[in-house]
Amino acid sequence: MALKSTNPTTTESWKELQIHFNTLKSIHLKELFSSNANRAMELTVKWEDFYVDFSKNRITKETLDILLKLANEVDLKDAISQYFSGEIINETENRAVSHTALRAAETKEVFVGGVNVIPGVKEVKEKIKNFTNSVVSGEHKGYSGKSITDIVNIGIGGSDLGPAMVVDSLQYYKNHLNVHFVSNIDGDHHKEVIKNLDPETTLFVIVSKTFTTQETLSNANSIRTWFLESQPKKAVSKHFVAVSTNVDSVKAFGIEEENIFPMKDWVGGRFSLWSAVGLSISLALGYDNFKSLLDGAHKMDEHFRTENFNSNIPVIAALLTIWYNNFFDSESEAVIPYTQYLSQFATYLQQGIMESNGKSVDRAGNTISYETGTLIWGEPGTNSQHAFFQLIHQGTKLIPADFIGFIESLHGNSEHHDKLMSNYFAQTEALMNGKTKDEVLAELDAQSLTQDQINRLLPFKIFEGNKPTTSILIQKLTPESLGKLIAMYEHKIFVQGIIWNIFSYDQFGVELGKQLAKSILNELNSDVQSSKHDASTQDLVDFYMKNR
Ligand code: F6P
Predict the structure, then answer these.
(1) Sorting pLDDT into bands at 50, 70 and 90, what band is 528?
(2) Which of 138, 150, 229, 479 is the most exposed place for a label (fewest CB within 10 A)?
(3) CB of 63 closer than 6 angstroms to any ligand 1 atom
(4) What is the pLDDT of residues 284-337, one digit of tens each?
(5) Residue 158 Cβ contacting ligand 1 at under 6 Å
């Protein structure tokens, strides 16, 4: 089986959406609320510890109905079933997309390419668990007999962003181990991380699905050289472990087989934190918390797989992106978590969303004539309110935003939390309602201003409002709720890709730059020009070489 290929713009529902858009585009959200007393309730999905309010979006029940019709016309149901049953839906790389199997119940069978993968998944989890327990308890000693105090995850992209985001987001649940991340090829990155580390008490986790990535291998080599400056070669086995599909290359690097945590090619890099790529998460938080993260994601998988589309959180979230991206011409979406703990969340989502859906050829191989992948960005509230919110409130661009908040804080200081959450509620209300001319006039009248001053200030103080937001209110930030939240966005990405008729799980676009960098590196190292550059690039390279 393969994913079907339907140009979404040729469907009945797309045409209906176009007509519907023309009637809805100038209607203010305030009118939608005043004309339907049940709107908030009708457009809110309550599931487990999630309260997801879609009602401050520029939709009506009719919009949702047509969007759901679109999902049916492109046969989303069939696509979901292929996704969860290990079909080769990553057709251009000839792979299944089965990261959901990593968090499935161990009592179940999940087939990928006709093989039940659960026993293999279980075996790797056991290995992660045992290793985590021995490092955390201090039983695993470094070469000189000291317990491990620091972990350094060496990886990039999906082999860095997921673990780094989760460890940071769940730092409240952390144990005594200090966990660091080295990703950038920029030598400053690894140098700054290792400068305060004791090689005798540090464990390095090299994470690379392919074990061919320049950044990761260079960083791993430089760090190993630094390590060997003070430690004997025999010490490497106590201080270096690796996560990869490429066992031979890991062994060639000098890591013994027992120190390799395998992963499978049916796990995409940007969806791999649930696999052995999450080893640093398990080490930082303990295996039980890592397991809770996986369990949360599994609950969201089940919700996504079985829930009717009209109350299915990832499906509705994805359809809203289509609505804004393809009808309102919105180019970006903001994700604003109202917790400092999720400060890396938008950065993490950038790879997931933009590497997956930044495509311009459809599943039949045709150049696409409609907009696909959205730009994702965001920072925690309230900091972001004092940074870029002005543009969301009064700029010319329509930027739908997800507001992620938590009912219970982890710090327990209700004064701070109520202040934070009052901002969370206030911003979505302000974005929706704006401020009318009459409201501004009343405000200005109350100040002792001349009529001229009032007239002059008036237009600048009016907020149009009508800015769409989705409020995702979760009981508490826990490993389980974070697992649910991440999986929610993973499935949103999937649904978007199905509707846009693209392959979401390859990333050929990042290859060209890598190839060119390799040949330019040869030129920098040999002074021999191996490829012909445009005049601009050539001048830059020459200037660099002359002045380095
Ligand atoms: O940037 C491209 C990419 O292939 C990502 O998709 C991936 O997460 C990252 O590089 C790292 O790859 P690897 O885990 O193979 O080192």
Answers:
(1) confident
(2) 229
(3) no
(4) 999 999 999 999 999 999 999 999 999 999 999 999 999 999 999 999 999 999
(5) yes
Angle (deg, nearest 10), helices 61-73 and 479-500: 70
List Cβ neighbours of 342 (8 Å cut-off, separation of 6 or more): 169, 380, 404, 477
CA–centroid distance, residue 59 to ligand 1 (Å): 37
Instruction: Give the up-direction half-sphere exposure of residue 351: CA atoms within 13 A in the CB hemisphere.
Output: 20
Which residues on adjacent β-strands are paired with residue 191?
none
Specify whether the CB–CB gap between 463 and 279 falls below 8 A: no
- Ligand 1 centroid – CA 309 distance (Å): 32
Distance (angstroms) between ligand 1 centre and the Cα of 217 equals 12
270 close to ligand 1 (CB < 6 Angstrom)? yes
Look up 355 and say whether it is catalytic.
yes
Q: For residue 335, give the H/E element and its range.
A: strand 332-337
Q: Is the pLDDT of residue 458 over 90?
A: yes
Second-level CATH architecture of 113-291: 3-Layer(aba) Sandwich (3.40)
pTM summary value? 0.98
| pLDDT confidence bin for 530, thresholds 50/70/90 | low
Look over the chain and give the mean of its residue pLDDT values, rounded to a whole number. 97
Q: Which atom of ligand 1 is nearest to the CA of 207?
A: 14
Indicate the class that CATH gives domain 8-73+307-433+468-506. alpha beta
Domain boundary assignment for the chain: 8-73+307-433+468-506, 113-291, 509-547
Pocket of ligand 1, candidates 183, 209, 263, 356: which has the most ligand atoms within 8 Å of its Cβ, to mutate? Answer: 209
Residue 20 has what pLDDT?
98
